[in-house]
């Protein structure tokens, strides 16, 4: 990668086509590399070559949008030429509800621009009322079903929150450790843990360990977490760590903010090491959503009320615990 950067710096004043040919890169790949070099401080955002590539991408995007609009217009014209009513035409085009409302407005504007009188426009609207009503009825039914599904999800989240917060509160009152909060920092492609931390509901550290991955930690993860290859060079690998985690988590519920991703990392580690974890995974984020009665996922930093997230496992565990304690207070448990 460094040799590619050095070669790029030598030829970056050449025409873009020559640069792509010499480096054997596509324009999209060079755009990605330029972004990375800008993040690393090797290239400026206003560099002419990066500006040119960015303008090319924007032009391609605009061209794609224009093509889609032309195809849509062509389909519309074909349906109108078939002497279909405006309602039937809209239905055949499978417009979304939002787009359908926009379509109605555009159609009314078209009639107005044709200098038809209000009486004539009203007559045309009445003629098509039946078709419009059928379409609107379908949309209303679709909206009703979506609303019911949303309410079911919210209700399930509220029950989920009540159940787990009651268990966490019991841990706090009795001094037990049925719940553990964990976080994993990992490299990606392939996904490998480089740090695992666990605390109990009292804030006590149960486990906090850097892990040596099979693959190198790339510069992005180093920048994000502050964990370097030198820091993990003499640390145990996942095969030595998983048996310890198995003993610590036996029969407990493990909560993390993004449980799906973290649980998958654990499952992958279990497969690689032949470890069978006897624990249950839960989602602290879903608990918080249930307390707020929200259907939208909430970032950890947002929920904690911080501008930045540390991206170190132990610090994130403590953030999650603080949020859960505030949720318990909000629920009055």
Automatic annotation (TrEMBL):
GO cellular component terms, A-Z: cytosol
Keyword terms of this UniProt record: Exonuclease, Hydrolase, Nuclease
GO molecular function: 3'-5' exonuclease activity; nucleic acid binding
GO BP term, example: DNA replication proofreading
UniProt cross-references to InterPro entries, sorted A to Z: Ribonucl_H, RNaseH-like_sf, RNaseH_sf
Spans through the membrane: none
Domain of life: Bacteria
Pfam families: RNase_T
Family matches, as CDD domains: DEDDh
Protein name, UniProt field: Exonuclease
């Amino acid at each position: 990668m460094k040799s590619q950067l050095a070669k790029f710096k030598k030829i970056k004043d050449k025409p873009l086509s020559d640069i792509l040919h010499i480096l054997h890169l596509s324009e999209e790949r060079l755009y990605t590399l330029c972004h990375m070099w800008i993040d690393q401080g090797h290239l400026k955002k206003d560099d002419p070559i990066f500006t040119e590539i960015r303008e090319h991408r924007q032009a391609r995007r605009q061209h794609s949008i224009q093509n889609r609009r032309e195809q849509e217009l062509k389909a519309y014209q074909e349906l109108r030429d078939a002497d279909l009513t405006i309602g039937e035409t809209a239905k055949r085009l499978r417009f979304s509800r939002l787009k359908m409302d926009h379509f109605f407005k555009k159609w009314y504007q078209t009639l107005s621009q044709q200098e038809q009188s209000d009486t004539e426009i009203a007559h045309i609207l009445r003629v098509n009322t039946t078709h419009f009503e059928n379409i609107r009825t379908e949309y209303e039914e679709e909206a009703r079903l979506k609303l019911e599904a949303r309410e079911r999800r919210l209700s399930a989240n509220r029950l989920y929150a009540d159940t787990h917060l009651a268990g966490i509160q019991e841990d706090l009152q009795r001094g037990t450790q049925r719940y553990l909060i964990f976080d994993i920092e990992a490299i990606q492609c392939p996904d490998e843990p480089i740090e695992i931390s666990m605390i109990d509901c009292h804030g006590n550290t149960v486990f906090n360990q850097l892990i040596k991955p099979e693959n190198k930690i790339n510069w992005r993860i180093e920048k994000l977490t502050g964990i370097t290859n030198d820091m993990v060079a003499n640390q145990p690998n996942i095969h030595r760590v998983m048996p310890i985690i198995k003993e610590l988590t036996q029969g407990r519920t493990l909560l993390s903010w993004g449980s799906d991703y973290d649980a998958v990392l654990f499952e992958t580690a279990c497969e690689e090491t032949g470890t069978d974890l006897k624990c249950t995974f839960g989602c602290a984020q879903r608990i918080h959503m249930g307390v707020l009665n929200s259907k939208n996922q909430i970032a950890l930093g947002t929920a904690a009320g911080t501008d930045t997230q540390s991206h170190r496992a132990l610090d994130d565990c403590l953030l999650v615990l603080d949020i859960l304690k505030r949720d318990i207070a909000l629920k009055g448990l």
